[in-house]
Amino acid sequence: MLAIRTNKLIKKFKDKTAVNGIDLSIEKGELFALLGVNGAGKTTTIKMLSGLIMPTSGEIVINGMDMKKDVFKIKEIINVSPQETAIAPNLTVKENLEFMAGVYQIKDKEKKINELVSQFKLDEVLKKRAKTLSGGWQRKVSIAIGLINDPEILFLDEPTLGLDVIARKELWKVITELKGKKTVILTTHYMEEAESLSDRIGIMANGDLVDVGTAAELIEKTGAKTFEDAFVTIATGGEL
Amino acid sequence: MRTLNFAKRNFKELIRDPLSLVFEIALPLFLLFIFQQFDIPAENYKLENFTPSIILFGFSFITLFTATLIAKDRTSSFLIRLGTSPMKPRDYIIGYICSLLPIVLVQSLLFFLTAVIMGLTLTVSIIPTILASMVISVFFISLGILIGSLVSEKGTGGLGSIVVQLVCFTSGMYFPKDSVGGVFEIICKILPFEACLNILQSVLNNDFSNLTVANIVVFAVYFVGVILLSIIVFRKRMISDNK
Predict the structure, then answer these.
(1) pLDDT at A155
(2) What's the DSSP call for residue A179?
(3) CB A170 within 8 A of CB A140
(4) Is the pLDDT of residue B180 over 80?
(5) Do A88 and B9 lie within an 8 Å CB cutoff?
(6) What is the CATH number of the domain that holds A81?
């Protein structure tokens, strides 16, 4: 069953077309990576799929619900970890989790928070103010917050951007554990991240979704030796 | 429920910033205390007139720190996260306003307590003055929401300081505007701060002879206008910030 379906999705900002009529189908439980260079349209696509901005034209269907008609119902079953760390800086980690549990009106707040604390091993930072945490911890907390409403669909916008290799690997482990349980849409600049984490990869360039497939399929299709080479070939239309 | 939850978060963010407490409470209290030590022979500095002035002065910092909080939320992606949640635009605006009201109440109570200790006659009119100050504070909070929605965190410092200066110089808290006269007096009449101060002083002294219809009209126009504008601009910025 499809978690996300888009039909001729277009987003224009004045004269600039950020997303140019993409058709996307993502299965429930799939980990789908959106890959592309800066300005390819990945973040704009995520913002439209998460109801943050409305498309100029086209259709978005999330779990069978139309984004235009049911945006607030859709917002109940999704969550987003934005590109920049989006946590309340003067609140402790526990207070951040409690606040977001309040935003989603979670009934058994304590139980859910305890689950996340255990899943993300947040015990040691629970009473620390968010602004005092390292970048890696802040991202981890940000993703934990993204799961507070037990979302059916989780959007992770460049979750490991700017993290050191150990923090990145730790987050990969967390994301891998979500596979199959949640539909995860991940945007990233890191080829190895997309290759090792995702079930399928969509490559965007200049607002177009130029190709979709597994890493192996994309490598085979382009005849490249590595996934990075395959990406460069697809994203540049074979010019490089 | 979502509104109160958001207000609780904003309240915590504000009271955990020591600078905001210094400027919103400690500095006005210090001014209230220090100006009474000079025994200045002017009506403005009598406790029954200067206490409302200090309340208004404290509100100007409420505008500054509200603007800073909102600008910070906008730039830190915090509002992007909330924008994808089921929170509705009204939850944000009411949540920001509600988070400031307990601070406003504490401010007013502390200012009056200090004033009474220093010699202000304890009368029942203090209660309606506090209630009137709560209403006026909504205008100052909305002004903060408007500024925070329009400019960056750095910009809020500049614009907030202008509001503080305008309150000081155009409300009549330090000197009677008719002692300057001319264009300055007209500016004082057009801006809302003199009207705010006149309302508070009139209620506290139970003497409405200085409160003009123009004062009421000016305050009402700014009150409604700034609230509406803050809602419109905040909503627009939430969308444009996400482009």
Answers:
(1) 93
(2) B
(3) yes
(4) no
(5) yes
(6) 3.40.50.300
